[in-house]
Amino acid sequence: MSDFILKRLPLGMFWPTFDPFLFCAFHNDKYPEGDGDMGPAASLVGRMLGQDFVGMDGWRMYHGKKIPGFPAHPHRGFETVTIVNKGLVDHADSMGASGRYGEGDTQWMTAGEGIQHSEMFPLLNEEGNNPLELFQIWLNLPSKNKMVPPHFTMLWDEDTPIVKALDGNGHETSIKVVAGTLNDVAAAPCPPNSWAVESESDSHVAIWIIDLPEQGQWTLPAAVSGLNRSLYFFEGEQVELNGVKGSINEAFVLKSDTSVVIKNLGKLARFLMLQGRPIGEHVEQHGPFVMNTKAELQQAFNDYQMTKFGGWPWPRHDQVHDKSAERFAKYADAQVK
Prior knowledge:
Layout lengths: L4 E6 L3 E2 L5 E11 L37 E7 L2 E9 L1 E6 L4 E5 L3 E5 L4 E6 L9 E11 L10 E5 L6 E5 L5 E8 L1 E2 L2 E2 L8 H4 L1 H4 L2 E7 L4 E4 L7 E8 L2 E4 L2 E4 L2 E5 L5 E5 L4 E8 L7 E3 L2 E3 L2 H14 L20 E3 L7
Antiparallel strand pairs: 1-21, 2-3, 3-10, 4-9, 5-8, 5-10, 6-7, 6-9, 7-26, 8-11, 12-13, 13-16, 14-15, 16-23, 17-22, 18-21, 18-23, 19-20, 19-22, 24-25
Organism: Marinomonas colpomeniae
InterPro entries: Pirin, Pirin_C_dom, Pirin_N_dom, RmlC-like_jellyroll, RmlC_Cupin_sf
Family: Belongs to the pirin family.
């Protein structure tokens, strides 16, 4: 192991994460054409509907039975950051908010004191395939913010900054800045109670998607010491990090105060970078709830059983929106963007 790479870990669907991050799932599904009702025009025989994570034929229904995705389920005590590179997601929640987003958009949702939401993947193209590629990242909340009111923010693709960098041979690297700052370019604002902004000057939270062209080279700048910084190599062939070879489907846990020259040795190489100062608090997690003590965790289950976090105001738990709807966000206060 080199002095700047602290760990090298293999990647599957669920990626290793470190405080302040709790979880990262990479969904990469090659869905077939839609059946006219936003489900797949393909046989579902042989799939464990309701729990389909196998990846038969290159795609999954997840918890959906007719439409792929995740029907209504609760969360408390953390945030979800859902970055959709390809495809669409239909959102609905217990606040009465809804939306359709994708093709580069990010939804940043603070679960706080408790919310139910559904995340369905409508297959709108009935003439061809419906590829879906997304990251869902769970970012912890510090104890003082675990019970804030739920909230979500849409970071539309058009409003998400992309930093371009040319190397000495004219190859251009693109870095999408979902959170944090790169070369004085700051990401769009995320929810107000997030660890990413509550102590922004100290938390150093960064979420970047890095696209390195064939034969391209780019230097990941050094940050301050004491951060957890992970670089996930999810598309491409082979790269060098400060001269150390790495292959696709690897995670590199890096020293945060050391710059790293990334050289692409093959076709387009793509990375997700997660970085942040640890919150440093004890975590008690069970399923969709993340608290600091076992008593708080039990209270979360009790509260959900009693209140359903506001109930479910939608006609179906796998709520999808009209097929003709464009990308939109309707907030709990009825504002539509």
